[in-house]
């Protein structure tokens, strides 16, 4: 149902996180400068960036990539960023609630048994609502495992699903490796 066809695959440094965190990860740092999938990263238009994200998180068949959806999704991204940064922020919680006002879950009975169906008065709120609802699910399941990468130069977030819950980096291949190399360099320099 995407209005624009995604012109490229998702080349962000971290993908595959739960929808709420994946939305936060549409902003990252690349070569020391901020990058934003919805603001021209990879030479895409803003709506093309939205189409890439919808495809990446499996929502492209349910929601349109258009300007209205983008505006609502960016509203949700700001609300989520504030709520994740400071879970005690009352205004961030109010913003999340405002996004959640645009959808609901209807209980259904299907041939397979009990089910649920999401409903939106305005479907352009669908992806934003889905991300906000996913954040509630993460809070319900494992609030302490919603993490920001430990690298001071990284802005990415992840859901720590490691067995012992000690994951620190968005990626061991990127930030984790840089931290190890930096520690090694500091040790060898001391000698």
List the helices and strands and how they pair.
Blueprint: H1 19-24, E1 27-30, E2 33-36, H2 46-56, H3 67-85, H4 90-100, E3 104-110, E4 113-119, H5 126-141, E5 146-148, E6 157-159, H6 172-190
Antiparallel strand pairs: 1-2, 3-4, 5-6
Tell me about this structure.
With 191 residues, the chain is of the alpha+beta class. The protein is 43% helix and 15% strand. The chain has helices at 19-24, 46-56, 67-85, 90-100, 126-141, 172-190, and strands spanning 27-30, 33-36, 104-110, 113-119, 146-148, 157-159. The relative contact order is 0.14.
Describe, in short, the structure shown.
This protein is α+β, with helices and mostly antiparallel strands. Helix content is 43%, strand content 15%.
Short descriptors:
alpha+beta, two-stranded antiparallel ribbon, 191 residues, 6 strands
| SSE order, one letter for each helix or strand | HEEHHHEEHEEH
Helical residue percent band:
40-55%
Radius of gyration computed on alpha carbons: 18 Å
The biggest beta sheet reads: 2 strands, antiparallel
Q: How are the strands of the largest sheet arranged? A: 1-2
Oligomeric grouping of the chains: single chain
What is the overall silhouette?
Answer: globular
